[in-house]
Write a structure and sequence with these properties.
4 helices, 19% strand
């Protein structure tokens, strides 16, 4: 029999690694497992592009995080901040997230998000952009009948006065 270290049995959401006596987790895995990013690849790319900081310092995706670390995630126009309660590496259900992290994002960031939502193109008022095909047909139906009589001029039998 071979010793297979790749078995999937008896998995726990807590990481197997410990640093300084407490559990630790890779940052990219924690961001994914805490449902801050949809995929681990997106979480790793955000770390590589400098959009994720731990305790105010930009870090690589392989950085090990522990309890009480503050993770800041910049998703323009807002920077979200989370205090780690449990450093996990396996994704958990959304109902368990209050046990994983505490949202410590300042209120002014949420105000900024609301201002951007109000002033942005996300909620564009109907009719302010390019007309739809239906709008164009309604405009044609409105304009063409009002021009009746202007297009029936007979140019062939027209005589100029000299």
């Amino acid at each position: 029999m071979s010793n297979n270290n790749h078995s999937k049995g008896n998995q726990s959401p807590l990481p197997s690694g410990t640093e300084g006596g407490g559990p630790v987790a890779r940052l990219d895995k924690w961001l994914w497992s805490a449902r801050i990013f949809k995929t681990r690849t997106i979480a790793a790319d955000a770390c590589k592009n400098g959009r994720v900081a731990v305790n105010g310092v930009n870090v690589k995706p392989s950085r090990m995080v522990k309890a009480n670390d503050v993770v800041s995630v910049r998703k323009p126009p807002v920077t979200f901040s989370f205090r780690i309660i449990k450093p996990i590496e396996m994704r958990v259900g959304a109902k368990l997230l209050p046990d994983i992290y505490e949202n410590v994002t300042p209120q002014d960031q949420y105000d900024l998000l609301e201002m951007n939502r109000i002033s942005g193109f996300v909620d564009r008022a109907r009719g302010t952009g390019r007309p739809t095909k239906k709008d164009r047909r309604q405009m044609d139906a409105f304009v063409v009948p009002s021009l009746e009589g202007y297009g029936d001029f007979d140019f062939e039998n027209w005589e100029e006065d000299e």
